[in-house]
Please model this.
Amino acid sequence: AAFSNRRSLLALDNLVEAIVFCLSTPATAGETFLVADPEPITVAEMITILREADGRPAPAAGASPAPFEILLRTSERNVLWDRIGQDLVVDPGKLLAAGWRPAVETRGGLRAAVRAGIG
Model:
């Protein structure tokens, strides 16, 4: 719960909607877009949402990321730490500006995935 780094996620329904939008919108022809749900969430939020959707309580407190970082960096696993401990956020602004609107909100999509047994 102490990990405050942010992640861009993409609901499957939003990916499908983005593909359909790009294929059916002449202005998107020949363009390259980054696709993600518009609002990144923190790893702590993600864990809380997944636990609550599974009927478990939110974590009361989390371990500090610092020991994980030290362990991974001293064992020469900097790339792994960068994937776990840093922000991984993309900006779907260009696609949004073209008119795409996601069908599923990130937090609701995570809850639905857990309830459907996907998460």
About this structure: The longest strand covers residues 6-7. DSSP finds six helices and two strands in the chain.
